[in-house]
Specification:
Dihydrodipicolinate Reductase, domain 2; 4 helices; 2 domains; single chain; elongated; 8 strands; about 180 residues; four-stranded mixed beta sheet; about 35% helix; alpha/beta
Length: about 180
């Protein structure tokens, strides 16, 4: 593999998601009966259609190579300007329906909230934004301790000018003003 380095990071502007275009996903199992993946899929589709009034496509993957049994549900919400992913892992004595409910609950919370990106992605973007030339900003569904800690650390190591708005646990905005 050959990787060519970039000359500079470009700023990003993530203010709004745009319209929801599609929801799709995958229900996967390893070393479990096929009905587990089917139940995860059906529970997720039932809730997405009933509660969110959205059509979704969920594929099934059987017999994923693994050392032990397990299940996984992954959902992807594709918007005009961004994407958001949600997942849940199965566990011993955790019903397939519970696995589906956890992923759907996460997606539902995101869809019903304000902000362009979810709280899990927000803290991962700030190191790159701090190094980009020019101004960058995003809105997030939730200001978290992890995000605020990352902003504090960056402020102590780099010359970036950063501003943030929003209360802990609530939607917010982060802006970098780099020269």
């Amino acid at each position: 593999m050959k990787i060519d380095p970039i000359q500079e990071l470009k700023p990003i502007f993530l203010a709004d998601r745009g319209l929801l275009k599609k929801v799709r996903g995958i229900s996967a199992i390893s070393n479990l009966p096929k009905h587990v993946a089917e139940r995860q899929k059906e529970q997720a589709l039932r809730r997405i259609q009933r509660e969110l009034k959205i059509e979704a496509e969920i594929a099934i993957a059987y017999d994923i190579p693994s050392n032990g049994p397990g299940s996984f549900l992954f959902l992807l919400a594709e918007y005009e300007k961004t994407r958001a992913a949600f997942s849940s892992l199965g566990a011993r004595v955790k019903p397939a329906e519970k696995v589906a409910d956890e992923a759907v609950d996460s997606m539902k919370n995101f869809i019903e909230s304000d902000g362009c990106i979810n709280s899990h992605l927000a803290d991962q973007l700030v190191p790159f934004m701090s190094l980009a030339k020019g101004s960058s900003f995003f809105t997030t569904t939730q200001m978290t301790e992890h995000l605020l800690t990352n902003l504090w650390v960056i402020g102590h190591f780099l010359e970036s000018k950063v501003r943030s708005w929003g209360e802990m646990g609530r939607p917010g905005r982060v802006e970098f003003l780099n020269e």
